[in-house]
Amino acid sequence: MLKGTLLVAGTTSDAGKSVVTAGICRWLARRGVRVAPFKAQNMSLNSYVTADGAEIGRAQVAQAQAAGVEPAADMNPILLKPGSERRSQVVVLGRPLAEVDAMEYGAYKDHLRTVALESLNRLRAAYDVVICEGAGSPAEINLRKGDIANMGLARAADIPVIVVGDIDRGGVFASLYGTVALLDAGDQALISGFLINKFRGAAELLEPGLDMLRQLTGRPVHGVLPWLDGLWMDLEDSLALDNRRGMGPPTVAEPPDPGALPGPGTSSGSGVPESLRVVVVRYPRISNFTDVDALAAEPGVVVRFVTSPGDAAEIREADLVVLPGSRATVTDLEWLRRTGLASALLDRRGPILGICGGYQMLARSIRDDVESGAGRVDGLGLLPATVEFVRDKTLSRPVGEAYGHRVAAYEIHHGIVSVDGGAELLRDGGVERFLDGCRVGVVWGTTWHGIMENDDFRRAFLADVAFVTGRRFVPAAGVSFAALRERQLDALGDLIERHADTEALLALIENGAPEGLPVLPPGGVG
C-alpha cells in the first residue's frame, strides 16, 4: 500500500502549486489511494467554513474535493487574512487567534510551528498519503528562519519537495535553478525535482533546456504541464484575478457533451440570444470572490471585474452589479467613494447584489470598533439596515430558501446586519426578506457566501434580474455547478496522469528524497 508525503513548492506565488496539488490528489484518489491535502500556512482572503464550523482556505477545500474527502481544519491549520498592508488576522485551526502586524507575528511562530506539525501528523495517521502545498517560494531567504510552510516544514517532517515553475512568465530555468541555489545544503537535500507548468509551444524546443537543467542541478524535471485554456479552480488570492478581469464561463480541458451544457437562453419571439452583463467590484481587500464563479459558469452570463475610476460607466450600464465580500469593509467603502465608483453605484437604477461585506456597505450606517476602529460611518444607504462589528466571528453553514428553492451557504463575518425596524418593516414597509438579509426594489443584500452555487436558486435569481432589466435572457436549465467543478478537478487529475512522470512521483511519496543529491553553490541561507 502506498504510504507517504510530498510537498509541492513553487518558484513564485501563482506558479501553479494549488493546481498541481489538487491534480495529484485527484490522480491518487482515482487510483484508490486515501489522500488528503495540507497547507501549513496560507495567506488568503478566500476562505470557507467546514462542516464543524472551522474557517480554512478555499484552495484546500478544492483540493479536499479533488481527493474525495471532507475538508477539515487540519488541512489548513494556519490562515492569515490581511486587513491592511501591515496587519492580518491569524486564524488557527479554523478560529481567529489575533490581529498582528508582520513583526508581531514572529512571537507566534514557535506555537504555530507546533500546531502545523501536529495537524500534519494527524493527517498522516488518518490517510495513506498527504500532499502538502508550500506558500509563496521556498527561496524567500529573508523569511527562512521562521518558515513553517516550505522548507521549514519539509525539514521538520522529512518530506521530499518538488518545485513548480511557471514557464508562461518567462525565466523559468533561472527561477528553478536559483530557487535551489539559494537554499542551504540541508534544504537542498530535500529538493527532489521540478515540474514546469503552463507550457505552450513546441515541446522539442524545450528539451535542450530540460537536459541542461538536469545537468546543472542533478535533479530531473518530472513533467511539463501544458497550458490549458479555461482551466479553473477556486483561487487562493486576488493576484490570479489579474488574468480573469473579464470572465466567460469556466471550461474544462476537453469540451463537454453539447447536450450537457445548454447554450444561452433565447427569447421565444426573436430567437436571438442575449447575454446578461455582470460587473463585480474588485476593491483592494476583496474576499471570497469565488462567489461569482457560478455566475460565470452560467451560459449567456458574462462576468467582468472592475477596479478603477474609469470603470464607472460599466457600473452604471451593467445588468447586475455585485459588491462581493471584503476583509476591510469600512476601508474598502472609503475606497469606493474615493474612486468615484460609489457615485456610479448610487446613480444606478438597475440591480445590485451585496454579499457579506458588500451587503454591509449597502446599509445606512456601520459601527466598526473591531476591524477598522473607525467607529460610526455612513454606508451607501441603499438598504434600510444598520451594521455593528463584534469581536466574535460568525462561522456557520446556514440553509434557507429564496425564490422557492433551497439555498445552502456559508457565512464568515464580524459585522452583524440588522434591518431597521425589524420584522415590522419586513412585513409592512416594502422590504422583502432575502435569505438572512433583505431586498428593496432591485437591491439585494445577504451575508451568505456560496449562494450562486445552488443551481435552481441561481437560475431563478438571474431570471428575476433579466425581468427587471428587460433583457431577453433565459437561464439555461440543467447546468450543474457542482458537476462543472468535478470536471475541472478531473481535468487536473488528467493533467498529472498524462504529462507528469507519475512513477517518479510515486517513488518520492513512498521512499522520500533520493540520497546524494548535489549541493549547488552558493549553498544559500538556512
From TrEMBL:
Region annotated Disordered, chain positions: 243-271
Biochemical pathway: Cofactor biosynthesis; adenosylcobalamin biosynthesis
Q: Which InterPro entries match?
A: Class_I_gatase-like (IPR029062), CobQ/CobB/MinD/ParA_Nub-bd_dom (IPR002586), CobQ_GATase1 (IPR033949), CobQ_N (IPR047045), CobQ_synth (IPR004459), GATase_3 (IPR011698), P-loop_NTPase (IPR027417)
> Which residues constitute the catalytic centre?
C356, H449
Per UniProt, the keywords (alphabetical) are: Cobalamin biosynthesis, Glutamine amidotransferase
Every copy of the CobQ/CobB/MinD/ParA nucleotide binding domain together lies at 7-231
Q: Where is the composition biased (Pro residues)?
A: 252-261
Read off the CDD domains from this record. CobQ_N, GATase1_CobQ
Q: Where is the CobB/CobQ-like glutamine amidotransferase domain?
A: 277-457
One Pfam family linked to the record? CbiA
Matching entries from NCBIfam families are given as: cobQ, PRK00784.1
Q: What family does the database annotate?
A: Belongs to the CobB/CobQ family. CobQ subfamily.
Task of the protein: Catalyzes amidations at positions B, D, E, and G on adenosylcobyrinic A,C-diamide. NH(2) groups are provided by glutamine, and one molecule of ATP is hydrogenolyzed for each amidation.
Designated name of the protein:
Cobyric acid synthase
Taxonomic source organism: Sphaerisporangium corydalis
